[in-house]
Amino acid sequence: MAREINLPKMGQTMEEGTVVNCLVKIGDEVKKGNVIFEIETDKATLEMESPADGFVKYVLAQANQTLPVGATLMVLGEKDEQVPISFVEALTGGVGLAAGTDVTPAAQMPTTILPPTVEPEPARPAGKMMVSPRAKKMAEELGVDLAKVKGTGPAGKITEADIRSAAEAKPAKAAQPARGEGVPPLHAGAQDKAKMASPQIAEARLGATVPVNRLQRITAERMLKSKREIPCFYLTVRVDMTDLVACRAKMNEAGGVKVAFNDYIMKAVGTGLEKYPLMTGQLAGDSIKLADAIHIGLAISVPDGLVAPLVKDVNKKDVRQIARDSQALIERARNDKLDLSDLEGGCITVSNLGAFGIESFIPIVVPGQCSILGLGRITDTCVPDNGNILVRKLMNMTLSVDHKVTNGAYAAQFLDFVKKTLENTKALMIDKG
Length: 433
Hints:
Layout: E1 3-6, E2 16-22, E3 29-30, E4 35-40, E5 45-49, E6 54-59, E7 66-68, E8 72-77, H1 85-92, H2 133-142, H3 160-169, H4 172-175, H5 188-196, H6 199-203, H7 214-229, E9 232-240, H8 242-253, H9 261-275, E10 282-284, E11 287-289, E12 296-298, E13 300-302, E14 305-307, E15 310-311, H10 319-334, E16 348-352, E17 371-375, E18 379-385, E19 388-402, H11 408-423
Parallel strand pairs: 12-16, 16-17
Antiparallel strand pairs: 1-8, 2-4, 2-7, 3-6, 4-5, 6-8, 9-19, 10-11, 12-15, 13-14, 17-19, 18-19
């Protein structure tokens, strides 16, 4: 019996999704739980599993097509079942089918439904080529032939790291993109930062029109929502990081996982949220709903923009455990391997621009969270002390807070607690062994 496969709601805020890739073709047998589509939502690119068994009779969704939740993507049926076109028309009312397209039963159609003006894709190597949308875009930017790239991701999926490796392995002459002559090479540090930036930024020139990618559009929509719906106030303190800088250096010399300043800061924030739980809340009618667990977002720059996946249960972990989790998140984010569980359920985000020389900034609260902590660089600063001048390592922290959830006095106590925790390395329970 024929059955339609619809676009599911793959996240609390999802209203629509973009079809990145269809992983099956007409006539294929599909088992319940098999991955059949890659869908880009408002938060990440996710794998969509089939909710039923069957054979693919029609594929109605096209690559790069954005559809609302509940839209029909595919029709499954029994192996020898002839599903009439009237069944498809009843599902869609003709909407979503290309104008003038004659939809043919699966028994007569070897490929996915496409508009008549679309040329068939060139032959590809045997087997299904799986590539993340960001990796595909990067390949186009760097002139890398996907057919010659071996994927190292799950099931052989091609990732951004694979594209970078392929680009670096190309002959020097071929590796130079046609972006003008006489451009000096970036130094090592700048190259690292350039890899984190969007390819659009590298292509930007005065007078040019730069297209906005989907991640940038989503970020813009969410930040606009934040500015419209979250009345914020802002608190700034200066933290003496001198002891923590020395402690981190000593800890990393001991070997094992490398701990970043963000890991200590997240630990201090997680401990503070336990003591000041209103800072985890969200207004829900005439009540404030507090978070069930302390998950902290970490703002990460990726080639197409910015994401803020979550380090889970921060208050229950020591700094080394947090470091392991954050490093894994950064790796998955930059290889486009985040899933929905990495992105939903946070109560605060940490955003650090210190590596770019920024001393302080006011970050924008992520919708669905109470606050966000912006961190500047650590600077050597002369500080008077009983008639003497000491050189201390200071860092600015700015907390943006949703005034619907809490007031300035409560948030100030929370921020002061985080500051004092960072200044007292013992309070961080730095290493549990």
